[in-house]
């Protein structure tokens, strides 16, 4: 594998983690939303990654294959005064677990940082390689 492929692999991973962070932030922002754009309660979304060939050789990068809705059951909260309450007084709330989303956010952030450090290390190695012949 060429040293230049490291930039392609890390770059693809950074792009995928950036989309993961956007999805997590959307989930957290809608954690208390009783309705989404469709009029139904918001459902948490999860990012699905897949490996893709990058550059020459066997180098594999990462891409977002799809963003899927979490099919876990929605939460029912008893609040008869809420405008969205049903006839029994229950409000259907999103299936977003804020704690899980925060952990997911930390994981995505650390992964992004690791890929930035990988690119910086590869750049340093390339620069030192260029100075060998001087």
Automatic annotation (TrEMBL):
It is found in: Bacterial flagellum basal body. It comes from the Bacteria. Residues 7-35 form the Flagellar basal body rod protein N-terminal domain. Residues 88-131 form the Flagellar basal-body/hook protein C-terminal domain. It holds the Pfam family Flg_bbr_C. InterPro entries: Flag_bb_rod_N, Flagellar_basal_body_rod_CS, Flg_bb/hook_C_dom, FlgC. Keywords: Bacterial flagellum, Cell projection, Cilium, Flagellum. PROSITE patterns: FLAGELLA_BB_ROD. PANTHER family: FLAGELLAR BASAL-BODY ROD PROTEIN FLGC (PTHR30435:SF2), FLAGELLAR PROTEIN (PTHR30435). Belongs to the flagella basal body rod proteins family. The basal body constitutes a major portion of the flagellar organelle and consists of four rings (L,P,S, and M) mounted on a central rod. The rod consists of about 26 subunits of FlgG in the distal portion, and FlgB, FlgC and FlgF are thought to build up the proximal portion of the rod with about 6 subunits each. This is Flagellar basal-body rod protein FlgC. It comes from Keguizhuia sedimenti. The lineage of its organism: Bacteria, Pseudomonadati, Pseudomonadota, Betaproteobacteria, Burkholderiales. The gene is flgC.
């Amino acid at each position: 594998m060429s040293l230049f492929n490291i930039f392609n692999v890390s770059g693809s991973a950074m792009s995928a983690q950036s989309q993961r962070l956007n999805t997590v932030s959307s989930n957290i922002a809608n954690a208390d939303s009783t309705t989404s754009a469709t009029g139904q309660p918001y459902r948490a979304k999860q990012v699905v990654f897949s490996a893709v060939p990058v550059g020459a050789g066997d180098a594999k990068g990462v891409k977002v294959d799809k963003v899927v809705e979490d099919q876990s059951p929605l939460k029912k909260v008893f609040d008869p005064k809420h405008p969205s309450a049903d006839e029994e007084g229950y409000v259907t709330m999103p299936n977003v677990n804020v704690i899980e989303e925060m952990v997911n956010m930390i994981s995505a952030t650390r992964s992004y940082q690791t890929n930035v450090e990988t690119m910086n290390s590869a750049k340093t190695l390339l620069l030192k390689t260029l100075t060998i012949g001087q």
